[in-house]
Design goal:
- The protein has two helices and no strands.
- It is an all-alpha fold.
């Protein structure tokens, strides 16, 4: 990492989480792959499920 200072270590935490609604998992995977290609970053795609009824 090329930065210094009290907040240099917080970049990973601040990177964030994106929640995307789509029916096209293959298309989403392709777009995410293009976004992280060559950056050294890793993307994780997870399926979200609805909470149980009554919650």
């Amino acid at each position: 990492m090329g930065t210094t200072g009290p907040f240099a270590e917080s970049t990973e935490i601040l990177a964030g989480l994106y929640r995307i609604a789509t029916d096209d998992l293959d298309g989403l995977t392709a777009v995410v792959g293009e976004l992280v290609r060559g950056t050294g970053e890793v993307a994780e795609i997870r399926e979200a499920i609805a909470p149980p009824a009554g919650l």
